[in-house]
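Box S2. Input/output pair 1.
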Amino acid sequence: MEVCYQLPVLPLDRPVPKHVLSRRGAISFSSNSYFFGGPAPRQLAKRRGAISYDSENQTALYIRMLGTYGDVRVRSQVGFEPELRGSHPYLYVDFRTLHSRPQSAGPVSARNVRRLLSFQRYLHSSRFIRGIPASNPLGYILDDDYTGQAKLMLEKVGNWNFDMFLFDRLTNGNSLVNLTFHLFNSYGLIELFQLDMVKLRRFLVMIQEDYRSQNPYHNAVHAADVTQAMYCYLQEPKLAETMTSCDLLLGLLAAATHDLDHPGVNQPFLIKTNHYLAALYKNISVLENHHWKSAVGLLRESALFSHLPTEDRFNMEERLGSLILATDISRQNNYLSEFRTHLDKRDLCLTNGGHRHFILQIALKCADICNPCRPWKLSKLWSEKVTEEFFHQGDIERKHHLEVTPLCDRQSNSVANIQIGFMTYVVEPLFVEWSRFSDTRLSQTMMGHLSLNKQGWKEGRDKQEASTSRASEEQRTSAVKDSNSKELPQGSKRS
């Protein structure tokens, strides 16, 4: 069951109550809707979607089906009208054929339970925010327990050792929604930009859902981790004293959406497989352009900024794109060289809007690749996840007789070698310059973790190589002994 709005969950065969029709909204469903008391029509098998309605025309129901062939919107009483998702052009891409894993079937899946509990918690927390007491407090004992633990973690969201994996478990897989909503609220951005809380919640849920949970690394948890890192950087004195509210808003939005709808494969893979996205963006920042356009599509679909002047909305979308495009790793040296030049000349002036935006780009780049700068326990887990995704791409390339990307070849590479190279040639040069720009306790902590983690991977690699070498030597020795033992009887016969 997928619920993206603050509305009751209804089976498909029941009428919509009047108090629900008093506002515009939607009821989402899946093929497992019978878990909640409703039927499971055969035509809905292996699909998910939503029924939306408008209080001005109660009979105008729109059914959005998400399946293999993209989005189709159907209007009752009118007939089938294929449309693009939302009222604005939206690029829908189904990458599930590239990076998918079989999901366990069953009438009461863990995914359904998580979604139900998550929705209950949201209703409870939203009532609390609006000052409405819970009608049945005993019904939320379990939810209160989990919400309380997550709330305690959010009180320390600025700590660099924040465990996003634990937070994601405490929020039943809703780490990105809860974290981003909390940060928007703590910065006062909801009131300042007059954001509708229901629209904001809907937008954040759509973001989280558009991340591919099948990806070991590029998923909503990674986006939440980058958003938390971005918040840590925005709290640094030089940024906290100069960044405007618009800068803060765009910085958090860019962090949350920077890998939106990531397929789990890299740009070279899309290019050599002649994917239409590569042709669409002319082989230039293919994934980053797609992340940006996907984010813009969700912004327009949710109408989060619909109350703002058109020019302001377009300007925010362009600035958001500029931030997301900066995460393209192929442009790393260009940004690093410009950053280093600014620091050498000491001409960065954060009262200048252009310079502030450039620092936001650098901050987002740091947040995107900061895993090696986390404590070893977290850093190691992230490293294993990203390597698993790399190797999965290599397996696909080998299966389809494509040239295997060296970084993605599990037969000639290891987690340790990949991480050591990544730290040495990508992470360390950028964070050395960030430390020059912001020489704070956080920067020193990050550089300390980076050094320790790099040493940890080297020691692990050396032990592995030594163990492999000993095993090879033992095999050779054993083979020689076996050979000698076989030759002795033959020699004795000759004698």
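Box S3. Input/output pair 2.
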Amino acid sequence: MLRTCHVLYSQAGPSAGGWQPLSFDGGAFHLKGTGELTRALLVLRLCAWPPLVTHGLALQAWSQRLLGSRLSGALLRASIYGQFVAGETTEEVKGCVQQLQTLGLRPLLAVPTEEEPDSAVKTGEAWYEGNLSAMLRCVDLSRGLLETPGPTGNVLMQLKITALASTRLCKELTSWLRRPWDSLELSPERLAESMDSGRDLQVSCLSAEQNRHLQASLSRLHQRARAQHVRLLVDAEYTSLNPALSLLVAALAVRWNSPREGGPWVWNTYQAYLKDTYERLRQDAEAADRAGLAFGVKLVRGAYLDKEREVARLQGTEDPTQPDYEATNQSYSRCLELMLTHVSHRGPTCHLMVASHNEESVRQATKRIWELGIPLDGPVCFGQLLGMCDHVSLALGQAGYAVYKSIPYGSLEEVIPYLIRRAQENRSVLQGARREQELLSQELRRRLLGRGLRASH
């Protein structure tokens, strides 16, 4: 983790003059110990090696057989786990968060669990109820973080809905939602009323078993959203699931994003690498405005590019993704401009997380925040992964912006498979971390050469 350094606070705060572009030159790496820098460089280089990411789970199992669980676990803790995970115990997580807060960064806790669409179906409702219990423990931990030193702004938490509702159900709902003439009974208002009342919801397109699972899933989502003072950022997933996920988010928003609740408490995630994202985002923002609901958005580039293209090829359907990386950048920029304009018009009822490791996107956001007069510590925040993009995160945090680091936590057995899945989904991010690797190498060379010069005197 990062060491504290009080001198950095003399650089904090916005410029008194016009907008000044932030410098992402790795200057903040002087806050890290040499061992931390070395580990970060090694881990980022390993994660950029495709065979390691592709065969990560098999390699983990092989190392356990060859080295034994204890030695294999020690190596993981000293490398990948130590780089990307806050820890296993409550005290370890709080220690990590306190160090981040001292540097002007905030926690975005992530429970490492969800159902993968192509995996074997988990064992009934008990599996989802166990996930809910883990999330409610995370809520309690998130609330406890408010008592730690440092900035005490809104605490955020991530959620994959497929941890509480099966992918089979979400695929069935998506199929039905794509036939508007048949989907009127699946309105957000009807689902929200069922959440509130607890009365059974009968949807004609679902079997009796699926209706029972839908009702149980709505109850779990309602219990999770009811834990206020922890804002819920719902992750987007595959296009075969996203319409159903957005329906469930909309139902939660009807209940929890009204102005009287002080929301938005429930945010949806929009993936700029999909061709229809800008139009969906525009429509959803306008609909929330018309309904008088607060609106929360986490804007990402997207993590399922290869899988989406492969599915489209196999099914003979149109590729839903942007044709290339530049088109995705343009989509992200348009969505960012749209949301910043909405924030400037709607004020505290419209919130945005700029979830990006891309320096140009961050520069665009900071410039427009200044031009539109949006408070630096207001309804716009930034998000990056723990253990990555620290040269951007620290520059933002010390300039006075709200910056969150996505923090998974838990045991090796829980977190390593989760990290490997995230690495497989975020190959482009990991392979694109070359600049961060270069900055880490420069800082290590500077230290080694500096020590050599001191030793020669």
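Caption for Box S3: Residues 34 and 448 are 10 Å apart (CA to CA). The radius of gyration is 22 Å.
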